[in-house]
Amino acid sequence: MDTATTRTLRTGATIPVIGLGTFGSDRYGPEEVAAAVRGGLEAGYRLVDCAAVYGNEAAVGRAIAASGVPRDDLFVMSKVWNDAHDPDAAVASVRRSLRDLGTDHLDAVFVHWPFPNHHAPHASVEDRDRTARPYDHAAYTALWRALEGLVDEGVVRHLGTSNTTVPKLRLLLRDARVLPSLNEMELHPTFQQPELFGFCVDNDIQPVGYSPLGSPSRPERDRTDDDPVDVEHPTVLRIAEAHGVHPAVVCLQWAVARGQVPIPFSVKPEQYRANLEGALADPLTPDELRAMAAVDRGARLIKGQVFLWPGATSWHDLWDEDGTIPGGLA
Ligand SMILES: NC(=O)c1ccc[n+]([C@@H]2O[C@H](COP(=O)([O-])OP(=O)(O)OC[C@H]3O[C@@H](n4cnc5c(N)ncnc54)[C@H](OP(=O)(O)O)[C@@H]3O)[C@@H](O)[C@H]2O)c1
């Protein structure tokens, strides 16, 4: 991996500028996702974004082994789900991910969501955990301490946050011994999160962009009527035509130029190959990058309604939009 295709983290380790997502959601089962991981590694991807809750780490682990790519050339990440926030459960979850992915270390482990609220796979946005609680910094810190222990042990190389906010990151930066190296966040042209993105960069936290194409095939339950479609935005279409590529590729070229690490998902070889090749070739011009910056609409797609606690009013309560943490125990 050379510097044109990697970014350097706070530890000095490098991470590829683009990776492969592995969340098959309702549409793609473990073996289809695993086949895409194997094909993606053969096509040149070196970063794989996994998670315990995706339910496919064992199949993905077999695909990684079958690819024959040396482990040291790969950056493999996993995440701890909400049912494993208790410190012992978190450690057990990471050890299971290590075993399933067939590796003696993970390059990064993320806390998938900062809320310890149960959310069953495929839950409808109306579903609620009646014992759900708002963010609890003492509980989050206890979880983080457990993950720090895994870094000390050498089985995890970097820690990361996901679906977090500036106020929550400020608390973590104040209290963590092993600082977060990465933050996985929703990032696509119509949702650029400039404040959180800037905060991460200023604090040496590498942003990883999930749903980088605007998740065009997400399930109906994750859609609302006024959600924009990134790959149909007129500016994205105009730039795609100028470069002779699919609009999805423009989203990735913009992401790489801006400095986040996009992790597009696809099980279709023509798509995941085009995504990798396109993201690294034929950069957008300064004028095109300015036009892409103006595409932002602050349009969050993954709103997180299922994490709401009794008394919370709307999904906006999850994202600390006024700079404070609702009900938060700091
Ligand atoms: N940390 C978190 O909480 C979190 C949340 C969400 C996602 N993620 C991670 O981010 C990854 C990506 O997010 P995502 O899957 O939501 O969204 P995405 O990557 O924005 O969209 C994926 C979909 O885009 C379509 N696509 C991909 N490449 C294309 C191309 N070249 N041309 C046309 N269409 C293309 C495919 O649709 P078809 O299948 O219909 O062809 C694919 O299923 C996930 O797999 C997961 O690893 C993390």
Automatic annotation (TrEMBL):
<dbReference type="InterPro" id="IPR020471">
    <property type="entry name" value="AKR"/>
</dbReference>
<dbReference type="GO" id="GO:0016491">
    <property type="term" value="F:oxidoreductase activity"/>
</dbReference>
<dbReference type="Pfam" id="PF00248">
    <property type="entry name" value="Aldo_ket_red"/>
</dbReference>
<dbReference type="InterPro" id="IPR036812">
    <property type="entry name" value="NAD(P)_OxRdtase_dom_sf"/>
</dbReference>
<feature type="site" description="Lowers pKa of active site Tyr">
    <location>
        <position position="79"/>
    </location>
</feature>
<dbReference type="InterPro" id="IPR023210">
    <property type="entry name" value="NADP_OxRdtase_dom"/>
</dbReference>
<feature type="binding site">
    <location>
        <position position="112"/>
    </location>
    <ligand>
        <name>substrate</name>
    </ligand>
</feature>
<feature type="domain" description="NADP-dependent oxidoreductase">
    <location>
        <begin position="18"/>
        <end position="296"/>
    </location>
</feature>
<protein>
    <submittedName>
        <fullName>Aldehyde reductase</fullName>
    </submittedName>
</protein>
<feature type="active site" description="Proton donor">
    <location>
        <position position="54"/>
    </location>
</feature>
<dbReference type="InterPro" id="IPR018170">
    <property type="entry name" value="Aldo/ket_reductase_CS"/>
</dbReference>
